[in-house]
Amino acid sequence: DAAFMKNLESALRFGTPLLVQDVESIDPVLNPVLNREIRKAGGRILIRLGDQDVDFSPSFIIFLATRDPTAHFTPDLCSRVTFVNFTVTPASLQSQCLYEVLKAERPDVHKKRTDMLKLQGEFKVKLRNLEDLLLKALRESTGNILDNDKII
After folding, report:
1. Nearest of 19, 39, 27 to residue 2 by alpha carbon
2. Alpha-carbon torsion angle 21, 25, 31, 35, nearest 10
3. Rounded CA gap, 110 and 99, in Å?
4. Using CA atoms, how far apart are residues 108 and 104, in angstroms rounded to an integer?
């Protein structure tokens, strides 16, 4: 698409963000951009776009978005880009709404909730460490484990 190529070239040249919506497959012309195949020539930073060299701005960023939850991308592409899943579930939406309402309406309850969530995370880490210690003790025990008071 000529309009897409013109927008891509302009974004690369001037360092503006580019949003590509409804991506179903990746055009091979994007490979040098996704790979960041830049080179310096005569004090200029260039990138190959199709059959021409284009000035490259280090502040350039490209966003590829799709609405298709079943979209499948190759492992090669997955290794070159960062995927962000913006799928909204009812539980996550409820949690985000509760967070914003509590922050605005009841800062004291919001602080308690935040502290409890932090404490819950710390307890999960402690539980995982205790589980690891128990598994290690079970693995290193010899004989009947019911006779070992440390494990029981």
Report:
1. 27
2. 70
3. 7
4. 10
Take residue 97 and report the two structure tokens written for it. 């709404």
Tokens of 18: 């580019």
The overall pTM is greater than 0.90: no
Amino acid occupying residue 35:
N
Place of tokens 């029981």: 152
Q: What is the DSSP track for 2-20?
A: HHHHHHHHHHHHHT-EEEE
The token duo for 94 is: 């409820």
> In DSSP terms, which residues pair with 41 in a beta bridge?
44
- pLDDT tens-digit series, residues 18-67: 998 888 888 888 888 888 899 998 889 999 988 889 999 999 998 988 88
